[in-house]
Amino acid sequence: MTPNGHGDPMLVIDKERHVFNVARRTFVDPAILEAEREKIFGRCWLYLGHTSELAKPGDFVTRQVGGRHIIFARNPKGELRALLNTCAHRGAKVCRERAGNAKSFQCFYHGWIFGLDGNLRNLPDEEAYPADFKARSTSGLQPVPRFDTYRGFAFVCFDADAVSLSDYLAGAKEYIDIVADQSDLGMAIVGGTQEYSIRANWKLLAENSFDGYHAATNHATYLDYLKNTNGGLANVALKGVSHDLGNGHAVVEYSAPWGRPVAQWIPMWGDQGKVEIDAIYERLVERHGKERADRIATRNRNLVIFPNLVINDIMAITVRTFYPTAPDFMLINAWALAPAEESKWAREYRLFNFLEFLGPGGFATPDDVEALEQCQRGYANMAEVGWNDMSKGMGRETPSYDDEAQMRAFWAQWNQRIFEAAA
Amino acid sequence: MTIDLALPNPTRAQVEDFLFLEADLIDEWRLPEWLALFSDDAHYYVPSTDVAPDASPENNLFYIADDRFRLGERVKRLMKRTAHAEFPRSKLRHLVSNVRIRERAGDEWQVSSAFITYRTKEGQTDVFFGTNLHQLVWEGEGLRIREKRCLLASDGLRPQGRVSIIL
């Protein structure tokens, strides 16, 4: 039996014949989205935000995660909290600002006031309620069932019985460490959120985020641009491998000719830039030894943490999450991450690098958006052409960064989670 | 900054004509001619919608922060068939209104205007709207753009999804 009564398999895998096909119905069927809401977004650890976004006690951001409205806050003791943004009384969202600093949250409907730990502090006409009413756990803002952080990345989970965040992240921790180790003082989100949408199924963006195969054709104009920038490239070949990190997480790790503010110099950055980059590199070697410093500095990584967190440590670092609102529509939030102590010079180049490639106004992402939307359009032909081929590199001992092993890891996990209850 | 009295003072009608010309050039995909409206030290900015209107792209994440070189490359890209997001090209219509000359400082005029831009591609129409802040300068015989800052009034790029056209 398959989800919601459908009898057909969603994946066809034949390792001997190198077949790995994904049913196009997974991108269009509302019943599949319902199953994903319950079995994936309802049970997996989901990215909430970065601890650097809450620098001071009282700082908060509000965010939608897995369809829920969440307040992510730092209480007066400096502890982090993830609260469900709904009044215990009638349900209104109690915090309607997207970010700020607060001592408490007041529901505007009947005036109930909650502390940053969620406790109900005051309510008008309190005498009308029993003496212990404020102290009841059901009177406050409810915390999300599970909340934890790993090296600055904060996650929530709506399944109280889920495995720990550490076990969930599995092999992805090694790659989060490589990002976190780029700073002495800690990595921090740079002000400004790129918010956009794509008229396509969310899983297409998960695939696209570590798809090395589409670069030459889909991003031809970006590569043209790099060639036009005088001395814009280092003499480094684009090559690398992909790794299955367990639990559906996967990464491609590769060398590339573009400049990395941590820490690969390109001629365009000039002699002064060479001094800056050399100093960053020396510091990495001091802290981590040459081998690890080289990996941090000279390798690029596109990491997808199942189901919907992307950390791309490339010419800049982008942190990206996305959620479906319909089978053919998703909302995306993206941020730039950088070492907190980064010099003005390096920060400027990092953001310049970010915008020339990444984001919905860059020279690459708009073409990704177009590609994903055209895939979604193509699924109108699903009755006659029903399968996506994901077999690239299946016969290879070590899959290349531009093969599809990383996507097969994602899909295998997706399939297992969607079908686990029925199996 | 001292004001150079030798420079002519443009009237609002002249500034409006200039902004309407700019809008038409974009709508007609005459982007190399549009680019020629910019001075050599020009910048084109579209900030993210959750940062301050005067935020700097040196320490804030924008949607677009082009110097003159990258703006030229943006135009080259948009004229190519391989700019897939805009091939086949969108149909566009920019409406410019509420034009105000805010301030004159030295050789620069600060001009604000409201914009509504419609973009249609494959039967899908998106609307972009907000405020444009132009820094205009006299160069040779005419006005040139030294800075154009497009402040989107929407919450991010939803549902537009991308800013693959010139706003």
UniProtKB/TrEMBL annotation, chain B:
<keyword id="KW-0560">Oxidoreductase</keyword>
<protein>
    <submittedName>
        <fullName>Aromatic-ring-hydroxylating dioxygenase subunit beta</fullName>
    </submittedName>
</protein>
<comment type="similarity">
    <text>Belongs to the bacterial ring-hydroxylating dioxygenase beta subunit family.</text>
</comment>
<keyword id="KW-0223">Dioxygenase</keyword>
<dbReference type="InterPro" id="IPR032710">
    <property type="entry name" value="NTF2-like_dom_sf"/>
</dbReference>
<dbReference type="Pfam" id="PF00866">
    <property type="entry name" value="Ring_hydroxyl_B"/>
</dbReference>
<dbReference type="GO" id="GO:0019380">
    <property type="term" value="P:3-phenylpropionate catabolic process"/>
</dbReference>
<dbReference type="InterPro" id="IPR000391">
    <property type="entry name" value="Rng_hydr_dOase-bsu"/>
</dbReference>
<dbReference type="GO" id="GO:0051213">
    <property type="term" value="F:dioxygenase activity"/>
</dbReference>
